[in-house]
Amino acid sequence: MKAIAFYVGFLHLIQCTAYAPLAGITARSVKTQQNVDLSNFLSTPNSSDGSKTMLIMGTYAADFNAIEYAQRLRYYLPELKKKGVSKVGLILNCEEESAKALADLVDLPCDVSYDDSVTLMVDPLGEAGRKFGVGQGWRPEDKEISPYIKLFAMLWGLGAWATLPAVIGGYIGNPFTAQPWIEDAMAVGQKKGRWPDMALVLNEESGCVTTNKFTELPVVGSWPRRPLELATLRLQNMMDISIKNWKELAPNENALKAGVLTQLGGCVVYDSEKKEAVFEWKDPGICAVANFEDILEKI
């Protein structure tokens, strides 16, 4: 009886320390091809490096939100580590080859490339994101409407209210809050030959940015985030990542039926010492992903 009581108590302890919204939900590791229990992933950090774990619920690999999450993550990994985030997972709603292709396109250090900083996982039908509670776009229950029509409606804010503000914000800039990841992502794109390719001047030997031409704009060039800067990156992403590589990155028929074309993303940072999520975010629209400057401030 004591053994049974101990076992029950042990199970209760596990349940209390795990992240409940993802209890019993798995995603597949791209590297090992094994299922990863996401609740356990979040609640078991690499303790020697910090007590926090980040998990990003990405979208399908050709989607603006997935691309921007990967680009932001690439830039902010060192800062996240300084804040005690010892383990990071990125889930994409696609098959393994699509996930690896996106990681390569944005030069994301992950466990299937040149670094173990990010655990790359796939959830082709988007079950983990839905369990987490991400937005599912416009009329997700209506199976008669084409998912592409639903996606078009979302571009105008239906089922994704923050889409237009996020897109417009990329054009008008922000005089208060810096977003340094934008320049880094554009530099990666230019090195890989993506267009537009005239915004930055790169050192031919090191590849480092020597001049950001947006800083030369009159008056607004001194803003932390200059007008048109993010819009230019998004044009680069659309033309030379999403459209150019659509066949390689697009969701398959089963994924379309599951609704991943219109499913949004989100992220969570869990602190195993506090036994609670210290940051949670669910994308309210297309291009409206988590602000990593806010994440660093809150964790």
Automatic annotation (TrEMBL):
Which UniProt keyword terms apply here? Signal
The signal sequence is: 1-19
| Protein name in the entry | Uncharacterized protein
Record lineage = Eukaryota, Sar, Stramenopiles, Ochrophyta, Bacillariophyta
Q: Which organism is it from?
A: Cyclotella atomus
Keyword Signal included in the entry's annotation: yes
InterPro entries, alphabetized: PXL2A/B/C
